[in-house]
Design a protein that fits this description.
By secondary structure, the protein is mostly helical. The chain contains five helices and no strands. It is elongated, with a radius of gyration of 25 Å.
Length: 147
């Protein structure tokens, strides 16, 4: 037979553990949602204009930090695979966005001029001329070594 147990103390011991797990899962999912918003926000803000590269950089850094936090929490607390795979995928997108932000910062003037040219181009030929002008303004080859 089963030994008698106190129903009051057994439930109260289990309740905080279950509540703590639910609170932890809720926090992880909230952080994951913020992470997704930061990653998507950085992508869509970059599409607006190169003048907003500072906001794109800020959202990208926030996305990377949140992604690492979510990834650690997903592994530590054994969250769902969706959160784990979403965090990994989002971190890859954030790494690509970081490279895009660095390239945009390096060639800021050329990209700004190109965007301004395309904004006023009314025909396909004018757009093609803008692209040719951009290609001419970019360096042909980055120096590999100093002589």
């Amino acid at each position: 037979m089963n030994p008698p147990t106190e129903s009051g103390s057994g439930q109260s011991d289990r309740q905080p553990v279950g509540q703590a797990a639910q609170d932890s899962a809720r926090l992880t999912h909230t952080l994951f949602r913020l992470f997704v918003i930061a990653v998507l926000g950085s992508f869509f803000v970059f599409q607006l204009d190169v003048g907003y590269v500072w906001l794109t950089a800020l959202l990208t850094v926030a996305g990377i930090v949140l992604g690492i936090v979510v990834l650690v929490r997903a592994v530590k607390y054994k969250e769902s695979r969706l959160v784990l795979y979403g965090a990994i995928s989002g971190l890859v997108v954030s790494a690509v966005m970081l490279l895009v932000v660095l390239a945009s910062t390096l060639f800021f003037n050329q990209i700004r001029d190109y965007q301004q040219c395309v904004r006023y181009a009314l025909t396909q030929q004018a757009t093609s001329e803008c692209r040719t002008q951009l290609e001419k303004s970019l360096p042909r080859q980055l120096p590999t070594q100093l002589r």
